[in-house]
Amino acid sequence: MKSENFETIAIRTQVERSLHKEHSAPIYLTSSYKFDDAEEMRALFANEKEGNVYSRYANPNTSEFIEKMCLLEGAEDGFATATGMAAIFTTFGAFLKNGDHIISSRSVFGSTHQLLTNVFSKWGVTFDYADLDKPEDWEGLIKPNTKMIFVETPSNPGIDIIDLAFLGDLAQKHHQLLVVDNCFATPYLQQPIALGAHISIHSATKYIDGQGRVLGGVILGSKDLITEVMNFARHSGPSLSPFNAWILSKSLETLAVRMDRHCENALKVAEYLEKHPKIKLVKYPFLPSHPQYEIAKKQMKQGGGIVTIVIEGGVEGARKFMDGLKMFSISANLADTRSIATHPATSTHSKLSEAERNIVGIEQGSIRLSIGLEHINDILADIDQALS
């Protein structure tokens, strides 16, 4: 039965059943595949025939995961990687060469910042940062050698947002490749490709898995673009393991119901903290006080599961709060069933200078709260006692 409903697609899309007629897809733990004869082997390696050649290129489990993600996000094709950062590196590596220029949102994950400043810069790729809250500045940064526009929205950890339709029009006008890190929103809350993006990237380690178990990433786009990605990845080898792909594909079956609860809990936490005297600032996309609230309402189904706060007392205030938490986990991960607190200035974004952190809104007292699936009364009670 064909369906256009997110939940049904996520649950019912499955690799072809074997002769054993299994209800749940098996794990294909194989590095290689057998060919019927020499001619079939030749044809497969020549891309004249579709099929599995080597699990660094494709595997039934990764193929199922990719097919689901493509259907859920409206993409033609995709490639699954070992981590979210492998997805970003592979995308940059596939499309950027010496002499190219990239425009990136200033608010990016710390490791993405390191790729731009310390890795691709060595290979002759230059970049300029632009602010998500200043869309009027983006066009002025475009140069004759600009190849790509890269953006996180919502950003990590500042929860800043930019109008993707605006960026899609800008990219089309100047013949740029628009790449969106859609990790925080997931395909359930936001579909960048429908809004004008050429490529959408996910760290599947986060909400796609949703339970803090495995690493993974995925790159989604048109068949032509993903062919370029695969040509690069075929030799650089960032492939997702079959076991992790199986986990992630199964996890997609519950993504919608999990995200509904994450969003419900996170909004209640944001509303509670916005009124708390020890909190200087609360950032959450579906709070009316968020600077890009109207954009968020336009392009996101709900506000997501991440709430970023700035606590009174700077780094000492942040440490006191985090050390006072009893149920929340202190971890660098996010998007887990379990609520997590992170101090970005001393962990995920510690490699940025203080000036760079201040520019993207990461203060010494900034804390990223990944709101989990526990009962909301317990989440609020833990936050309340840690602030007392």
Automatic annotation (TrEMBL):
It catalyses: O-succinyl-L-homoserine + hydrogen sulfide = L-homocysteine + succinate. The modification N6-(pyridoxal phosphate)lysine is found at residue 206. Pathway: Amino-acid biosynthesis; L-methionine biosynthesis via de novo pathway; L-homocysteine from O-succinyl-L-homoserine: step 1/1. Coiled coil: none annotated. Its EC number is 2.5.1.-. Its cofactor is pyridoxal 5'-phosphate. It comes from the Bacteria. GO terms for cellular component: cytoplasm. Catalyzes the formation of L-homocysteine from O-succinyl-L-homoserine (OSHS) and hydrogen sulfide. Belongs to the trans-sulfuration enzymes family. MetZ subfamily. PANTHER family: CYSTATHIONINE GAMMA-LYASE, TRANS-SULFURATION ENZYME FAMILY MEMBER. Homotetramer. This is O-succinylhomoserine sulfhydrylase. It comes from Pedobacter agri. The gene is metZ.
